[in-house]
Amino acid sequence: MILIMFGAPGVGKGSQASILAEALQIPHISTGDIFRDNVTKGTESGKMAKEYMDKGLLVPDAITIGLILDRIRNEDCRNGFIVDGFPRTLIQAEYLEKMLEEEKLAIDTVVNITLDEAKIIDRITGRRICPSCNHIYHMTHKRPQTQGLCNHCRTGLVQRPDDHESTIIRRLGVYAAQTKSVLSYYRKKYTVLDIVSKEDITETTSQMFEALGLDTVS
Ligand code: ADP
Question: From CA 154, how far away is CA 60, in angstroms rounded?
Fold first, then answer.
């Protein structure tokens, strides 16, 4: 199954993608995580990407496309994968389609998660992430078992540098200006499942599993 997780920043697509990936036993490819790993490792792509990410702007297609398509070409994606955060421009969408066609693969479903802008801002300002295993938490809606520590690897949680209010507003503007058009394009070609993000993460997950025809939420 090849799934594209779509939605504005902060709607919870990363959390839902990782739950789905675990249930379906397929890789979860998050472009944001790939970029952040490159930033941490100090690679050339990471250094270039950081300048854009910190400002809330999209990393240029010339850097993004190669990095993400290389990841999708990995052997572990042969039986399906979930992409979260890609494509975010029409050019990225075209390259993805071309690559999938060459590999005789195709997108099955697009999951589009929506949420009001005011709630998005609350979600993102309260978001904390594990810099080691990338699990996502929220200071009020999804607290870790021990305050400030990742449940999975006990690493100290951090706030992303681009999760401050002024940068979030810029990211929402970028989504409206550059990314939303990809959704209109996908609506003409694929099944798009619209899911309204709920405060309770498990409620959103149940809605999504039901829409996908999956009966277990693990
Ligand atoms: P969010 O969906 O909350 O904005 P992500 O972790 O997916 O967060 O992305 C963080 C940042 O990484 C983006 O603001 C952007 O700078 C960069 N990025 C992620 N995916 C892409 C992409 N497909 N194209 C360009 N830049 C991207």
Answer: 34
17-38 pLDDT, tens per residue?
999 999 999 999 999 999 999 9
Residue bearing the CA closest to ligand 1, atom 12? 32
Q: What is the pTM of this model?
A: 0.91
Pick the closest to residue 130 from 105, 168, 158 (CA basis).
158
pLDDT of 199: 85
pLDDT tens for each residue of 164-178 = 888 999 999 999 999
DSSP structure string for 128-186: EE-TTT--EEETTTB--SSTTB-TTT-PBPB--TT-SHHHHHHHHHHIIIIIHHHHHHH
Q: What is the per-residue pLDDT across 92-116, written as a single tens digit (0 to 9) for each?
A: 999 999 999 999 999 999 999 999 9
Strand order in the sheet with 2-6: 28-30, 81-84, 2-6, 109-114, 191-196
Cis? peptide before 9, omega within 30° of 0: no
Whose C-alpha lies nearest to ligand 1, atom 15?
58
CA gap 212, 117 in Å, rounded: 25
CB of 92 shorter than 6 A to ligand 1: yes
Q: Is 109 in the pocket of ligand 1 (CB under 6 A)?
A: no
| Banded model confidence at residue 161, pLDDT cuts 50, 70, 90 | confident
Query: Of 75, 3, 74, 91, which Cα lies nearest the Cα of 34?
Result: 74
Answer yes or no: is the C-beta of 35 below 6 A from any ligand 1 atom: yes
